[in-house]
Write a structure and sequence with these properties.
The complex is a heterotrimer of chains A (284), B (288) and C (393). Chain A has a single domain (2-276), classed as ABC transporter involved in vitamin B12 uptake, BtuC. Helix content of chain A is 74%, strand content 3%. Chain A has helices at residues 2-30, 37-54, 58-81, 90-111, 136-158, 160-170, 172-177, 182-208, 217-230, 235-255, 262-276, and strands spanning 126-129, 132-135. In chain A, strand 1 (126-129) and strand 2 form a beta hairpin. In chain A, helix 1 (2-30) crosses helix 9 (217-230) and helix 2 (37-54) runs parallel beside helix 4 (90-111). The model of chain A has no long low-confidence stretch (mean pLDDT 86). Chain B has a two-stranded antiparallel sheet with strand order 1-4. The longest helix of chain B is centred in the middle third of the chain and has 27 residues, at 176-202. Chain B is globular and about 55 Å long. Chain B starts with a helix and ends with a helix. With 393 residues, chain C is an alpha/beta fold. Chain C is globular, with a radius of gyration of 22 Å. The termini of chain C are far apart. The model of chain C is unreliable at 15-32 (pLDDT under 50). Chain C has helices at residues 2-27, 49-68, 88-101, 113-125, 154-168, 182-198, 217-224, 237-249, 265-271, 291-304, 310-329, 334-343, 386-389; strands spanning 35-42, 76-83, 106-109, 130-132, 147-149, 173-179, 202-209, 230-233, 256-258, 279-282, 345-349, 352-357, 363-364, 367-373, 376-383. Chain C has a seven-stranded mixed β-sheet with strand order 7-6-8-9-10-14-15, with helices on both faces. In chain C, 59% of the residues are buried. The chains are: A mainly alpha (284), B mainly alpha (288), C alpha/beta (393). The A-B interface holds A 27, 31, 33, 80, 83-84, 87-95, 97-102, 105-106, 109, 221, 224-225, 228, 232, 259-261, 263-264, 267-268, 270-271, 274-275, 278 and B 25, 31, 33, 78, 81-82, 84-86, 88-90, 92-94, 96-97, 99-100, 103-104, 212, 216, 219-220, 223, 227, 252-253, 255-256, 258-263, 266-267, 270.
Chain lengths: 284, 288, 393
């Protein structure tokens, strides 16, 4: 049964990782806790609804969702964060929370408070490997997460853009001195992170067949815990922490004899972790 | 009349909450995004002491304040180990964990919450609504005075030093740890007072009353009003308490308006309406 | 530039206050002749907005029909409603407002347990009859003799579920999933109570989960390992849909038994064909031949373009109950309305027949059992055994 629970945890782990990655990318370069990121994640799911009205196809929906969220991310950093970048930390933080709330309300006002099913029905098969059941939906989510992670890895480690992102995350002034356009690099981090979030939102919409205004709430809190445990700004840390959280939840929920609120679990794990290693797994 | 008194009581309680958070965030500069947890601890302590021990409000109130202060000290310890952004997230985590404890541990009433909390009474006579409002007003004034005294005393100086530059402060011999914890203790104590008032007014509390959205609301109060100032805390509490009531006709758009206001304020007026650096305040002062 | 915006903000804020005021003046406690005001509150924003909206719709439909049929005591009925955002403190302010400013003669709560429980003592204090449409917190009716509850008590419905499990489905090994609020806990209590009373079955797996949970596979996997022959999952329609889907995705062929939380077209929509065969206890019987039920379903669908759910039906009936009481009392005197409510018997409602209210002002009503067939809810059975459906107080 343990193995089965591990399989269960990999899919949710994949989603946590994808969402948290955007947060990490942004934090890395701007040092801002971009809580509104979860609102962009939800936007991805809602954009699927729009996409299907234009052309009912899942691939198109993905592209559409990721494009729109990428643009949204760009706009957010340009018009909201940049102007207040020099203010005390608390200011962009509250602005981000305000934006998150505003997005949720907009979704509710435009599409209604009800949970909307994903516009396409998928019929997942369950595959069996010996004693283990592999639900098709989980495989889909997991596989897609790995694909996106691979692409991200390539961008960050094998391209000039990625190099610039890492440099700016490390030290903004020095990078600028070396000729890196930090403004553009930051914008790019947002664009990539937001696109990832949009993809994650759409995937969740498919997996749970649910799209609703407050769907960003739980990812918002959990991503925070994930990036803290991973080490703020560390991509490797986020990946490990994201999957780790998914696995931990599945195992604990499956085996703990008493009831436990899943959300608090993420934070308890985080707090325990902070007591041992305050910089996080891969942080400095 | 009844309805207005209720709103006044809410304004009073929220003012005390805003003042209490101000000590931690405004004076000591520690980002605390989980203040609703302390509010909840104060409320639950007071409620449980009153219902399980059968004592009156006058006994449970001071006890609640003390308990909350102690818990505040303990929960404030993480602030010593972690830096700003970590602290922000840790305090959110504390909020969630405390709320989960209230919800899941049977002793705290679990999902059913705590009911039958006694309204304050003197000599067997239950307070009227007006009396409660008056009492709240008195406590509010006391809290403001306490906050002001803290700010203008040696404690305030120490907190300010920590806020402005920790490194410089510790090199000048300021015990940064002591002041950080002190900020949490004082802030929680006042939050405990607010919590107790809330519990005995509502006569029924559940874990849902003390979640993260409330922490954000309290933070918004002091930021919109003007962080680090007593007058700012009052104005923020007043505005944010009245807004839901005033905007009822707009009811469907209430939350959106609130959220947009938050964004606009942070974007254009982050010093708050009447904070020390605020343009509005400077203008008022300039004219006066 | 910054200065201008700052000033503009301040000005608009003050203007906003000024503008909002005249609206208030209109609703001020002026006793309008020829109108009967009924108060209503439910969450219209926030995570519970979907239910709040359904509840409001049900209430509004009832008011519309009452007025179409000549109003009450010759006067038009007006529904005064507010959004409580599922916050106890808002519900308290709303209750005071409804009672002292809007001067409603009675009220219905279309909200969840927390806000209803907080507001009840206020209605009681001011002696304004209030009916809780569907909130289950046991303490609500204990607030006093002016507070009634239209929906089933969690323990009553739980007992009905136990009845269905053992007598209809002949289950022997039961896996129990409990949603982590007062509703879930009281349902679980009722289920276990009935199982003990009837004997012959045992709970082989029991776990509480958080409301809003979306991923049940860890729990379902662990439950499956205990080889149950029935899965009782207390939930609201969102969680229920996920549970049904994930059970299907896991390839697990087990009977699922739910309750009125499932009772919404949303459950059918979100669960898709995974909903097929799911059995629930509820109050709305779609196949009820009664014209009242059928008309309600038809009119709701026509007016709102959506099928009604349990929350909408309960709110509709709560308002109708008030109307019946007011008619019976022939007066708007609150004490008379209260007495009339208490004395109602064998009233035919959209949600079935109300036998009577107990002394504790809880309903004694048969519990409907519905099954999902071909993507729709249909009659499966009915539980009228007084042993089961009579509330403990």
């Amino acid at each position: 049964m343990v193995l089965q629970q591990i399989i269960n945890g990999l899919a949710s782990g994949g989603i946590y990782t994808l969402v948290a990655l955007g947060l990490t990318l942004v934090y890395g370069v701007l040092k801002i806790l971009h809580i509104a990121h979860a609102g962009i994640y939800a936007l991805g799911a809602y954009m699927a609804l729009v996409a299907y009205k234009i052309y009912p196809n899942i691939y198109f929906a993905f592209l559409f969702a990721m494009a729109t969220t990428a643009v949204a991310g760009y706009l957010v950093q340009k018009y909201l964060y940049w102007p207040i970048i020099d203010q005390p930390r608390i200011v962009p933080l509250i602005a981000s929370i305000g934006l998150f709330l505003a997005l949720e309300e907009l979704y509710r006002l435009i599409w209604g408070p009800y949970v909307i099913p994903f516009p396409q029905k998928f019929h997942w098969k369950t595959y069996t490997l010996g004693n283990i059941r592999l639900p098709g939906a989980d495989l889909f989510v997991f596989a897609l997460s790995i694909v996106f992670l691979a692409i991200l890895y390539w961008i960050v480690n094998k391209t000039k853009v990625g190099l610039a992102m890492r440099a700016v995350a490390d030290d903004k002034e020095v990078s600028e001195a070396s000729g890196i356009n930090s403004k553009w690099t930051i914008a790019l981090s947002f664009i990539i992170g937001s696109a990832l979030a949009g993809a994650a939102g759409l995937m969740v919409g498919v997996y749970y067949n649910s799209i609703y205004p407050t769907m960003g709430d739980v990812p918002a809190y959990k991503s925070l815990a994930v990036i803290v445990v991973g080490g703020m700004g560390s991509i490797e840390g986020t990946v490990v922490a994201g999957f780790g959280l998914g696995l931990l939840e599945a195992l604990l929920l499956g085996f703990l004899p008493f009831a436990f609120p899943r959300d608090a679990l993420a934070f308890i794990a985080m707090i325990i972790f902070l007591l041992i290693k305050p910089e996080g797994l891969f942080g400095e | 009349m009844n309805y207005y008194l209720t709103i006044l009581i809410y304004i009073g309680i929220n003012s005390i909450l805003a003042l209490s958070l101000n000590i931690i965030v405004g004076y000591a500069g520690q980002i605390s995004l989980g203040h609703a947890a302390f509010y909840g601890i104060g409320a639950y302590s007071s409620a449980l002491i009153a219902t399980k021990l059968g004592v009156s409000f006058w006994v449970s109130l001071p006890l609640a304040i003390i308990i909350t202060a102690v818990v505040g000290a303990i929960l404030g310890l993480p602030s010593l180990r972690v830096s700003e952004d970590f602290l922000a997230i840790t305090t959110i985590g504390i909020n969630f964990v405390v709320q989960a404890v209230f919800k899941y541990v049977k002793f705290f009433g679990g999902a059913l919450g705590v009911s039958g909390i006694p309204f304050p009474s003197i000599g067997g006579h239950r307070f009227s609504l007006a009396a409660f409002a008056l009492m709240t007003a008195i406590f509010t004034v006391i809290s403001a005075v306490v906050a002001h005294l803290i700010n203008t005393s040696w404690i305030g100086l120490g907190l300010k030093a920590v806020r402005e530059d920790e490194l410089a402060a510790s090199s000048s011999g300021v015990n940064v740890y002591k002041f950080k914890v002190l900020a949490f203790v004082l802030g929680s104590a006042l939050a405990g007072l607010a919590g107790s008032l809330y519990a005995h007014f509502m006569m029924f509390i559940t874990a849902d009353d003390f979640g993260f959205p409330l922490s954000i609301a309290i933070l918004s109060m002091i930021v919109i009003g003007g962080i680090g100032t007593v007058r700012g805390a009052f104005l923020g509490a007043l505005l944010l308490t009245i807004m839901p009531e005033l905007f009822r006709p707009l009811s469907d758009y209430r939350m959106l308006v609130y959220a947009i206001l938050l964004i606009l304020f942070m974007r254009f007026l982050p010093e708050g309406l009447i904070g020390d650096e605020s343009i509005v305040w400077k203008k008022i002062r300039g004219k006066a | 530039m910054k200065k201008v915006v700052a000033l503009a903000l301040v000005v608009s804020l003050t203007a906003g206050f000024g503008w909002a005021k005249p609206q208030k003046a209109k609703l001020k406690g002026v006793k309008l002749k020829g109108v009967i005001k009924i108060g209503f509150f439910s969450p219209l924003t926030g995570f519970a907005a979907a239910d709040g909206l359904s509840a409001l719709r049900g209430a509004r439909l009832a008011v519309e029909q009452i007025n179409k049929n000549g109003g009450l005591l010759g006067k038009k009925v007006v529904l005064v409603n507010y959004d409580d955002r599922v916050k106890s403190s808002e519900a308290v302010a709303i209750a005071r407002k409804l009672v002292t400013k809007d001067r409603v003669i009675a009220a219905v709560s279309g909200s969840y347990s927390g806000p209803t429980r907080a507001a009840a003592p206020i209605f009681q204090q001011f002696k304004v009859p209030m009916i809780s449409a569907y909130a289950v917190h046991p303490e609500i009716t204990k607030a006093g003799d002016y507070i009634f509850r239209n929906g089933f008590l969690g323990t009553v419905e739980g007992k009905a579920m136990g009845e269905v499990a053992l007598k209809f489905l002949r289950a022997k090994r039961i896996a129990l999933l409990v949603i982590d609020n007062d509703y879930g806990h009281s349902l679980a209590e009722g289920v276990k109570m009935r199982i003990r009373q009837l004997g012959g079955a045992k709970i082989v797996y029991e776990k509480t989960y958080s409301i809003g949970e979306k991923d049940f596979t860890p729990l379902l996997t662990a439950a499956r390992a205990q080889k149950p022959d029935l899965l009782i999952a207390t939930a609201y329609y969102n969680e229920a849909a996920q549970i049904a889907r994930q059970v299907k995705q896991m390839g697990w062929k087990i009977q699922i038994l739910g309750e009125e939380g499932y009772d919404s077209p949303k459950f059918l929509e979100l669960a898709g064909d995974a909903a097929e065969g799911v059995i629930i206890t509820t109050n709305l019987n779609r196949d009820d031949l009664s014209s009242i039920t059928q008309n309600f379903i038809k009119n709701f669908k026509t007016k709102y373009n959506e099928d009604p759910d349990m929350v909408g039906a309960s709110s509709y009936d709560a308002v109708m109950l008030l109307a019946k009481a007011i008619k019976k009392a022939h007066s708007t005197n609150p004490a008379r309305i209260r007495d009339a409510l208490q004395s109602l018997q064998n009233e035919v409602l959209a949600t079935g027949v109300l036998y009577r209210f107990t002394r504790g002002r809880e309903v004694v009503k048969p519990v409907q059992v519905q099954i999902v067939k071909n993507g729709e809810f249909h009659y499966y059975g009915i539980i009228a055994d007084p042993d089961v459906v009579t509330p403990p107080w």
